[in-house]
Amino acid sequence: MPKPKKPPRWYFSLRSPYSWFAYLDLTERYPDVADGMDWIPFWEPDAVTQRMLDEADVELPIVAMSRAKNFYILQDLSRISKARSLKMTVPIDKDPNWEVSHLAYLAAQEEGHGRRFIELTYRARWQEGRDITRPETMGEIAVELGLPAERLANASDDPGLRKRGLDCLVQSYQDGLFGVPFFIYGREKFWGADRLTPFVAAFRGQPLEEVEKGWQHHDELPRFSAPGGDTGHAGGCG
């Protein structure tokens, strides 16, 4: 497969449990792929960022999640976490501002700690039950990273980071994102945690069967399962 003109990339959300599952597999199973692509955050914008998106004539594909789907995802997360022997919490997000954590990621990235920030933030949200929409939580993670607490706690107040965040969301729109995790290799797009192996195959130029040899014990994500991804806002479990 020819090398794409644009770098391979994946869109992740710190809100999304399916992005967390994909993150675990990327970093633990396919570190060469994780190291060879762009990491781009995606989130539901607050009122300030939404005005900026409106001015740019960008409409993100964010839809309200039905009650039935919300309950389904709770069951799905229970199945997947048990199959992977993960102790998982599912927090309830009340009026969350996702700029707080996602712009904090961009700040940590500028300091050379982007990947470690993601690790700590996913752990805080999905295993420790901490509220990653609170600036105080971002300050605590900053200290763990050896950074001044205010560097991450106040990230959403930084105009420069706001502009970088806007650029990420505009790029997601231009790339045709409609849910996370979302992987792109050239013109090929892959949505969902269970589409990671086809993406890895495209990235490496390997037959899919070779990539899947070490995947089959993940029975909770069979090759032709329904996509393990998020297509909209789901409160505490999307």
From TrEMBL:
<feature type="active site" description="Nucleophile">
    <location>
        <position position="16"/>
    </location>
</feature>
<dbReference type="GO" id="GO:0004364">
    <property type="term" value="F:glutathione transferase activity"/>
</dbReference>
<feature type="domain" description="DSBA-like thioredoxin">
    <location>
        <begin position="11"/>
        <end position="201"/>
    </location>
</feature>
<dbReference type="InterPro" id="IPR036249">
    <property type="entry name" value="Thioredoxin-like_sf"/>
</dbReference>
<comment type="similarity">
    <text>Belongs to the GST superfamily. NadH family.</text>
</comment>
<dbReference type="GO" id="GO:0006749">
    <property type="term" value="P:glutathione metabolic process"/>
</dbReference>
<dbReference type="InterPro" id="IPR001853">
    <property type="entry name" value="DSBA-like_thioredoxin_dom"/>
</dbReference>
<keyword id="KW-0413">Isomerase</keyword>
<protein>
    <recommendedName>
        <fullName>2-hydroxychromene-2-carboxylate isomerase</fullName>
        <ecNumber>5.99.1.4</ecNumber>
    </recommendedName>
</protein>
<dbReference type="Pfam" id="PF01323">
    <property type="entry name" value="DSBA"/>
</dbReference>
<dbReference type="InterPro" id="IPR051924">
    <property type="entry name" value="GST_Kappa/NadH"/>
</dbReference>
<dbReference type="GO" id="GO:0018845">
    <property type="term" value="F:2-hydroxychromene-2-carboxylate isomerase activity"/>
</dbReference>
<dbReference type="InterPro" id="IPR014440">
    <property type="entry name" value="HCCAis_GSTk"/>
</dbReference>
<dbReference type="GO" id="GO:0004602">
    <property type="term" value="F:glutathione peroxidase activity"/>
</dbReference>
